[in-house]
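ok here's Calcineurin-like phosphoesterase domain-containing protein, seq below lol
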Amino acid sequence: MLVVVSDMHLADGSAGDHNLEPQVYHDLLDQLAEAHAKVRKFNPRSRVEIVYAGNIFELRRTHFWFDQGDHKPWRHFGPIKQAGQALPPQSGEYLQRAAQLFTRVMTHQNVAPIKSILGDQLADRFGGVEPVRGYLPGDADRMINMSADLRMRVIDFLGLDLGRPQAWDPEQRFPNTWCDPHHGAFIRHGHEWDVYSFEGDPAKPEDYDNIPMSDLITTELFARLTYEASMLQGSAEASAELIHGFCRKLEQIDNVRPVSSLVKWLAWHFASPIEQELLATCIERALSNFKGQEYVKWWLSMAGHDKVWTPVDEADRIERLLDGFKHLWMGKAKLALAVYDKFASYDPFERFVDHAAEEPVLGQADSPIHYIVYGHTHEARHVPLGMVGDGPSRRMAHYVNTGSLRPTHTVTRDGKDFFVSESLDFAIFYRADEKPGATGPTFELRTLTRSRR
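and the structure came out like this:
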């Protein structure tokens, strides 16, 4: 029985405490144990394999990097004029700082217990046989694959050595994809198909170290907003209590889905004049910081991602988002929402289905792969792709997205409000000998949405 989990986004809490309560991970194990107990009745030899498919750890959504001076993962000291500047800084000092950040994440009160829940001995939960575990980095935790120190910490925290005849070597990089022919699954995080989250060619392993634009959007813009809010001082107009409440609300910004809803969320959730004034101050400072980054200047230029022959490209969409923020900063909410209406029409989810259908592994002769499994989008989803292969290997191919384990502010269908929830999503894949009557690999996509205060 193969289990795929992604997008836990365990963070240090400095940009907002959004780590789920440890009980959520007990609930996850309970569901897995129940599913495997049913499998063992049919096949007592079945063993559980768990793959953590990226963005398990969050190394960007934090205030940590604002205290590190020049030692940032995307620090550039001069003008950026070519795509080669997407390479990470030559100095490795920032990776040592990243190890310090990882320690802060691991010691968070809601994260520390997870090691004993998911990363400890689990044989007693799964028929006396220890599960085998694997890990793929995503974009939020891409730096883990750049440091043996960080890889060693991940091996320990997730219990990757448990149940294996040979321990993981922290000197070796974690894989970017995972292929399990027995369960018919090919797994990657999926950020490779998001132009904001991956810079380069997925066929080149070295490009996974490149700086994605999402690093700067998440940290230098969104986390910077909450950082500027934390720096606000109380006054006669804004008491310390009011500022505290304002900060707590603003900290939810990175949970808003889809991201195109951000301008509307900000416009609607900060309605009072004093909150709007505080928001304007934070936006002004964060925008100035973001636009001043050399990497951002390159990315939004024609040398980067601005295509003059494309009416609305990826660079244009960021510009529209920034324009929406600017209008909010200037108190022009109607203009901000007009910009939102244009930006919100962008739906990136179909691109992942398109890329799943084109995965080379599906077209290989006698390929056993039925399921292309991604995470990244935070939207648990299944799409039957169609029949592939010839002769005995002809089979139905599927796209499966594992969703996420995190809080979410989702815009309502009528576009007039937001629903606050937390998600517990994951996928299970079964071999033919793990399900009665099965003639090939089968799957379950389990989604649980809980309303949240």
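fwiw The chain has 13 helices and twelve strands. kinda neat tbh
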